[in-house]
Write a structure and sequence with these properties.
Blueprint (H helix, E strand, L loop, with lengths): L1 H23 L5 H6 L1 E10 L4 E11 L2 E8 L4 E8 L4 E7 L9 H16 L4 E4 L4 E7 L23
Antiparallel strand pairs: 1-2, 1-7, 2-3, 3-4, 4-5, 6-7
Length: 161
Amino acid sequence: MPRFLVSISLLVLSLLQAIAQPATKLPTDSAAVADSSRRTFTALIETPKASISGICLLVQDSDTIKGAIVNEFGITALDFVYTRKDDKVRLVSAAPMLNKWYMRPVITADIRELLHALREGKFSYEDEKYHIRYSLSPINGDDNNDNDNDNDDTEESTLPD
């Protein structure tokens, strides 16, 4: 039995390696990689009674923008998807304190207006009716690739077209 254990282990190891190789060598679509972009911001949502601060992550793929606002403790406050073609925001999930039937329409409309403001180069939006202020600040060193080029002096738009 012990002499077969080594051969069985080698056989299982080679099978696992054969299965893992095709997954790592999948052809990548260069257009999809070049089309997607990622932006990170520090986020602050202020209301008359409370505020939420954290990080806002935006990922754009062709005609959709997927976003999330995560607080300092790693708890997701909002997840949303914005389709540029329809100009609509769909709130995927919200923290329990924001997940109320009367708050969801306000939040989706405000996120839509905030994304419009980002496209115009503004980093904040204020809902005058409900006195909610959304502020974003780009995080330094934010770029589309994983290289650490902090000395790059080129300007990037806040949200790609």
